[in-house]
Amino acid sequence: MNNTVKELMERKSVRVYEDRQIEQEKKAAIVEAALQAPTAGNMTLYSIIDVTDPELKQKLSVTCDNQPFIAKAPMVLVFVADYQKWYDLFCKYEDTVRTPGMGDFMLAADDALIAAQNAVVAAESMGIGSCYIGDILEQYETHRELFSLPRYAVPAAMVVFGYPVPQQTERVKPKRLRPEAVVFENTYRRMEPEEFQHELNKVTDRGEDFERWIRAFCQRKWNCDFSIEMSRSVKAMMNQWENKEQQTDEA
């Protein structure tokens, strides 16, 4: 197993950091690695916001589901799905330009997420830990204002970085599902709940306690305030992208 694969196998989220900054040359290398990621049509359909303002980090630690460690992270990058720059350029040179649609939304989000993962892998190779913050998808209206985002630029991912404390380095990585539960040949295969339960038991070791665990997990991750807010927020994001927000207001 080469070092790249080994690091991918061992990488886990890091939420507690040493009280030291990431060196500028390493930070620059992480960003450059992100920019070298695969991108649709070589268009770089994303922008990266480097959050250095402590006050802004503090606000994000609240808006992103009240997670104080965000404010303490030495480096915070927000990856924005961004078609605004291309749309503006097209409009400068073409008389008739269609407005970005949902396909463009998804493609730009793909670009942003691929770039984010490149940054994560690069950081890991330097001994710098990271954690994805999915809650950046919540409170779209607030984040749009915080970052001065135009219509066709929306937050797709946020990643925080820092040198892990020993406890985080030594923490055991949670098991992942087996390939048999995830990889299907040629066509999708819908698993029966009992089969999926069997696969989950292999990585959670819940055994007879599985029903209690899955009920609690459903309440914590699915029937919960942050999940409901995330769905509302992303819908607002998509409506803004498709200009439905204005139409709704006018109606």
TrEMBL record:
Keyword terms, alphabetized: Flavoprotein, FMN, NADP, Oxidoreductase
Pfam family, any one: Nitroreductase
- Top-level division of the source organism's lineage: Bacteria
Q: Which SUPFAM superfamilies match?
A: FMN-dependent nitroreductase-like (SSF55469)
Residue span(s) of domain Nitroreductase: 9-163
| Keyword Membrane assigned | no
The UniProt entry, under InterPro entries, shows: Flavin_OxRdtase_Frp (IPR016446), Nitroreductase (IPR029479), Nitroreductase-like (IPR000415)
* An example Gene Ontology molecular-function term: oxidoreductase activity
The Swiss-Prot or TrEMBL record describes its family as follows: Belongs to the flavin oxidoreductase frp family.
Entries under PANTHER family matching the protein = OXYGEN-INSENSITIVE NADPH NITROREDUCTASE
UniProt protein name: Nitroreductase/FMN reductase (NADPH)/FMN reductase [NAD(P)H]
